[in-house]
Each structure stands twice: as structure tokens, then as C-alpha cells.
Write a structure and sequence with these properties.
Layout lengths: L13 H55 L45 E2 L6 H21 L2 E5 L5 E3 L6 E2 L4 H7 L4 E6 L18 E11 L2 E10 L4 H7 L1 H41 L15 H54 L7 H31 L8 E2 H11 L4 E6 L4 E2 L3 H17 L4 E8 L3 E8 L29 H11 L3 E5 L5 E8 L2
Parallel strand pairs: 9-11
Antiparallel strand pairs: 1-4, 2-3, 2-7, 5-6, 6-7, 8-10, 11-12, 12-14, 13-14
Helix pairs in contact: 1-2, 1-5, 6-7, 7-10, 8-9, 9-10
């Protein structure tokens, strides 16, 4: 029969495939949320970096104008702490954007401006007036809000709040002390945003940047800039080509996951189900390997299923053949008994004696003989049923079995040699059944001696059992283990002995076969080892 065993190779386990798919599905939404948060943060830092660059340009211009007015006594602010001053030896002193939605506290909306304690110095007001056109032109392009403050935090240039003080605002106060500062503040939009905007925290915030203007290590003013970060959805629309490509990749990845799941689980399972249906309909061609197994569990399931189905199929064939033989074997004695009983009954009811006393005795003898044959056959059938049952977890030594065999067959000269002290994986009773049937079969075929030779092997014990009885003819050699096959039917043979011996050996994982012999008969038995 065609081999159905799965080819041995590495396959992922079904639990691993299911876990990987479920883990990926579970992580995808988290990855989406992480992407939005990460992108929000990136847009905020990008906005801060732009405000730093723009403010720095205005700060340089402001500082140059202040330096030009130093001779005229233009007032300066607080001295910058030494730790806040850049190292004179550094060629570059970059200010890195560090605002973070997750790490920074989101402040309330910016406080309103307050009346200035005293007006700004006229020199600073004049500088603010000169810078105002530059601020307006910059706002047109950058969409950022700029306010230029004097050393006391009073607005000297800007669209609004000129002449008012912003010194009470946290980031401005830090800049007036000579340190750059930035903050994220809640923004009140001009109109309610769409509901989908709630996914992004960056939509409702405002970035504020306070850049100190340093002249002679003192604060000469502050460039206070603000801007709303780019809307993530507007940015997604501008980059729609890239995100469309990403969406295509996600769809293709999803399809790939589905194909993997189909190849490793769905398709092999469907094929196995189809095979089960075919086998259930009696199709013997279904006993062959699957085209694809997918996972280790399915390969093991397939092997187990086909092994079970093949065993059931063999069992079904055996039962059908056995039933046909049994019917044939029972038919002859039952027919004989029925015929003899009918003749005896007719003789009893006849007015004249139709059967002589000797004929009646012969018919009764025939009935008793057939009944004994049926009794012997039923005994053999019980032995066969026990032999084909679930094997017992017993063990014994061949020496003990052979001692019992000598006691049971004293007329037979039994010699034994080899590793008789090694234990075999079979109970004494079952081993005795096997050897007793071989000994009984030898006696019935005129054997006078029985030779047993045991050889130890790694997987078991190989035992050769030979006798000097009548040899088996060549045409009968292939049929001797068939149930009910016998050449001594007239002498009461049932043809069950060797079938029982084979059933016992096979049920315990062993085997029995007929060996070629120049004289007599020889069998080779493979007993399982402990």
C-alpha cells in the first residue's frame, strides 16, 4: 500500500502560527496610535526648530541695533548667568528643539498681557519701529506671530499688545534672565475642529518660543514667537502619495498573512477533511500523502489519521475474510449434524425400522464428532480473540517458558540454547501460547524433537524454533498463517493454531515467519525486548 507518512522537515507549530497572527493583529492598532503620537511630536519639534531659526535672525538684527545705541546710553537688562553664556571657543552653539507632548507639561493658554509698570525706553521703541516692517514681512510667509520685547518684557514691536508687558509669562521670564525657553500651551481655535482631529493632540496646542537678545553678556531684549504646529491631517494629505504607498504595503502584508494562514492551516485541514470523506466512502486511493502539511501538528494529525484509517481498513478486510472462512467452516459440521438428526428423527417416527442399530450408532457418533469439532473451534476462536486483544504489560524469561513447554509436551524432545535468561516484553501465558501452538503443530505432523535457539539483539530477541516433522509443501507455505487453513481437517485440525500464534506476536510488537528448511520445519520469532 502507498506510504502516507509525512516527509520529515521543520514546520512551524499551529500554536506558533496562531499566536504570531493574533499578536500582529493586536499590535497593528497600537502601532497606528504610536505613529500618530510620534508624528505629532515630530511636527511640534519641527515647528519649534523653525521658530528658533526665525527668532535667531531677528535677535541678531536687534542686537546689532542695540550695539549701535550703546554710546547713547541705551539701557540693558539683567546680566546673563555665566553657566548660560556660550563657550567662546565653540564655533557653533545650536539650540535643539526639545518640546515633547509626552514629556512636557501642557500649559494653559497664554496669559493676557498686563499694563507695563513703566513705558519702554525711546531708544528701544525706535528699534522696534525699524524692525516692525521686517516682522510683518516674515509673518506673511511663516504664519508665525512675533513680538519684540525690551529688557523689561514690554512689547515694542508686533501686531498687538504694543506697550504692554509680557514679563509675567513663564517662558518670557526665563528669556529675560538670559536663557532660551519654549512652551506648549493649549490653543483655543477660531472654529471647532472636525471630530477626527481628536486623534491628534498636536491640533489643539500652540508652540511659544522666547529667544533672549544678548549684548555684552546682558539681556537687551526678547524675541517672543508663536505658531500652531502643522495639522497632521493636512500633512497627510500633502504626503498622500507616500501614505498611499504605505497603505498598499499594509494591504499586501495583510494578504500575505492570509495566504500564510491558508497555506499552513486552512488548505491542509481542508484536504485532510476531503480525504476523510473519500475514505468513508470506501475509496482506497485516498490512502496517500497530502500535497502539503503546513504545520507539525497537522503532519502528525495526518500520520495518525491515515494510520488509524489504514488499520481500520485492514481490520475490516480481515473481519470480512474471517467471517467468510468461519461461515464455511461452520457450515460443514452444522449441515452434517442437521442431516444426521433428520435421519434419526425420521427413523424414530417410522413404523418400520429404516435404520439399523449400527447405522443409528454411526449417525450419533457423527453428531458427537461434529459437536466436538465445533467445541474445539469455539475454543480456538476464544484464544484468537484474546490474542488479538490489547497486549498486557508483562515480561518473562524464555527459560521459564521452555520449562513449562517441556512439562506440557513430555513426548517431545525439546532442546534449547542461546540467551534464554534475557527477559522478553510478553507475559509467560502469552509466550506459552505461541510456543505451545508450534509444539502442538509439530507433534501433529510427526515430529519427535523440537530445537529452540535464542539470539539477543538490540531491539529484541530472535528465536528460531525448528522440528523434524513432515515438511510443508511449497504451495502451502504462503497460507499456513491463514485462519482455518489446515491439511488435517479429517483428523480434527481447525487451522487456527498458527493464526493465533501470529496474532499474539503482532499484538505485542513482534513477528513470526516461516524459514526455508532442508528438512522438517523452522520458524523465526522476533520477541520484543524490555
Amino acid at each position: 500500500m502507498t506510504s502516507f507518512r509525512a516527509r520529515q522537515k521543520w514546520r512551524p507549530s499551529l500554536s506558533f502560527v496562531i499566536f504570531a497572527v493574533l499578536a500582529l493583529v493586536a499590535v497593528l492598532p497600537l502601532l497606528g496610535l504610536f505613529f500618530f503620537r510620534l508624528y505629532d511630536n515630530q511636527l511640534i519639534r519641527q515647528t519649534q526648530a523653525e521658530l528658533i531659526a526665525q527668532s535667531r535672525v531677528l535677535a541678531v538684527i536687534y542686537a546689532r541695533d542695540v550695539q549701535a545705541q550703546l554710546a547713547n546710553g541705551i539701557p540693558l537688562g539683567a546680566a546673563v548667568p555665566p553657566e548660560a553664556l556660550p563657550d567662546p571657543g565653540d564655533q557653533v552653539t545650536p539650540i535643539r528643539p526639545e518640546l515633547d507632548l509626552a514629556g512636557n507639561d501642557l500649559l494653559r493658554r497664554r496669559p493676557d498681557a498686563l499694563p507695563a509698570p513703566k513705558p519702554a525706553d525711546p531708544a528701544h521703541i525706535a528699534i522696534g519701529a525699524r524692525l516692525m516692517p521686517l516682522v510683518l514681512e516674515t509673518q506673511k510667509v511663516t504664519l508665525a506671530g512675533f513680538r519684540i520685547l525690551d529688557p523689561q518684557g514690554v512689547v515694542i514691536a508686533g501686531r498687538q499688545e504694543v506697550g504692554q508687558s509680557l514679563a509675567h509669562i513663564e517662558e518670557v521670564a526665563a528669556a529675560l534672565r538670559g536663557q532660551y525657553s519654549a512652551a506648549l500651551r493649549i490653543r483655543i481655535p477660531d472654529k471647532p475642529p472636525p471630530p477626527i482631529y481628536s486623534i491628534s493632540r498636536g491640533v489643539g496646542v500652540h508652540v511659544f518660543s522666547a529667544m533672549p537678545v544678548i549684548v555684552n553678556d546682558r539681556v537687551a531684549g526678547v524675541i517672543y514667537a508663536s505658531r500652531t504646529p502643522s495639522n497632521i491631517f493636512e500633512h497627510l494629505y500633502r504626503e498622500r502619495g507616500k501614505f498611499l504607498l504605505a497603505a498598499i504595503v499594509v494591504v499586501l502584508a495583510t494578504i500575505a498573512i492570509g495566504l500564510v494562514f491558508s497555506r499552513t492551516v486552512t488548505r491542509p485541514m481542508r484536504e485532510l477533511v476531503d480525504r476523510a470523506v473519500q475514505i468513508g466512502r470506501g475509496d482506497r486511493d485516498a490512502f496517500k500523502a497530502l500535497d502539503h502539511y503546513g504545520t507539525r501538528e497537522l503532519a502528525q494529525l495526518s500520520d495518525s489519521f491515515f494510520g488509524m484509517a489504514q488499520q481500520l481498513s485492514r481490520r475490516s478486510d480481515y473481519i470480512a475474510t474471517f467471517s467468510a472462512h468461519l461461515t464455511h467452516e461452520l457450515k460443514s459440521p452444522l449441515t452434517s449434524i442437521k442431516g444426521a438428526a433428520e435421519l434419526l428423527l425420521d427413523s424414530l417416527h417410522s413404523k418400520t425400522a429404516t435404520l439399523t442399530r449400527s447405522e443409528q450408532t454411526n449417525f450419533v457418533s457423527n453428531i458427537l464428532g461434529d459437536a466436538e469439532r465445533l467445541e474445539a473451534m469455539s475454543h480456538r476462536l476464544r484464544e484468537l480473540a484474546r490474542a488479538q486483544g490489547v497486549p498486557e504489560n508483562g515480561q518473562t524469561q524464555l527459560a521459564d517458558v521452555i520449562d513449562g513447554l517441556r512439562n506440557q509436551f513430555p513426548a517431545l524432545a525439546i532442546s534449547a540454547g542461546g540467551c534464554l535468561e534475557r527477559s522478553i516484553g510478553m507475559s509467560t501465558e502469552k509466550a506459552m501460547i505461541v510456543l505451545a501452538h508450534l509444539a502442538d503443530n509439530a507433534i501433529r505432523h510427526n515430529a519427535k524433537s523440537l530445537a529452540i535457539e535464542a539470539v539477543g539483539e538490540t531491539s529484541g530477541i530472535r528465536v528460531t524454533v525448528g522440528n523434524d516433522g513432515d515438511p510443508i509443501s511449497e504451495p502451502n507455505r504462503d497460507r499456513i498463517f491463514d485462519a482455518f487453513f489446515t491439511t488435517r481437517r479429517d483428523a480434527g485440525g481447525t487451522g487456527m493454531g498458527l493464526a493465533i500464534a501470529q496474532a499474539v506476536m503482532v499484538s505485542h510488537g513482534g513477528s513470526i515467519r516461516l524459514l526455508p528448511a532442508s528438512r522438517g520445519v523452522a520458524f523465526e520469532l522476533e520477541f520484543p525486548a524490555i
